[in-house]
Design a protein that fits this description.
The protein is 79% helix and 0% strand. With 175 residues, it is mostly helical.
Length: 175
């Protein structure tokens, strides 16, 4: 359901570009990039998102998707630059905050990750993965009570995910 909503939002943003010069070409490149991304053809997808950005430099969703591909390819600096640009263009992009938070968490920039998870949660409270990510950052910062609260929130939203119980138990053991 969230993936469908995300695709619809991306397409709405793409259509918003339809009234600008080269907007049709940007929209076509973006759509091709999405199809290639879903098919896991990452290099080709990366090229299509870059093409969309060349046609429409203010296309936030294209930066976000290109950043996701960059991250999948291990290009963290480029991914971070794309997420930053997406957020400069569209400050209410919960997914861009989430992706950047995950990148920051994996780069051991825990305080910055917490801030981005908070931004994403302010926009989308129903996402258990956001709570779990912030909990991991809190745990790395040794803020175990906060981590425990976030894992509990994630479990409330997705009670069938066993890994959340395991992570919460590991945090609880540190208290």
């Amino acid at each position: 359901m969230i993936a469908v909503r995300h695709i619809v939002l991306s397409l709405v943003v793409a259509l918003a570009h339809a009234q600008r010069p080269d907007a049709r070409k940007a929209e076509e490149a973006f759509s091709q990039g999405r199809r290639l991304e879903i098919a896991r053809q990452l290099e080709a997808s990366l090229e299509r998102f870059s093409e969309a950005i060349r046609y429409a430099p203010d296309f936030a969703a294209a930066y976000r998707h290109r950043g996701r591909i960059q991250l999948s390819l291990g290009h963290t600096a480029e991914a971070l630059a794309d997420f930053n640009q997406a957020l400069r263009i569209q400050t209410d992009d919960a997914e861009a905050y989430h992706l950047r938070a995950d990148l920051l968490l994996s780069s051991n920039e825990f305080e910055k990750a917490v801030k981005d998870y908070e931004q994403a949660l302010a926009l989308r409270r129903e996402r258990p993965d956001l709570y779990a990510g912030r909990a991991a950052a809190y745990s790395a910062l040794r803020q175990y009570r906060r981590a425990l609260e976030d894992y509990t929130s994630a479990i409330r939203l997705r009670p069938a995910q066993a890994s959340l119980y395991k992570e919460r138990a590991m945090v609880h053991a540190k208290l």
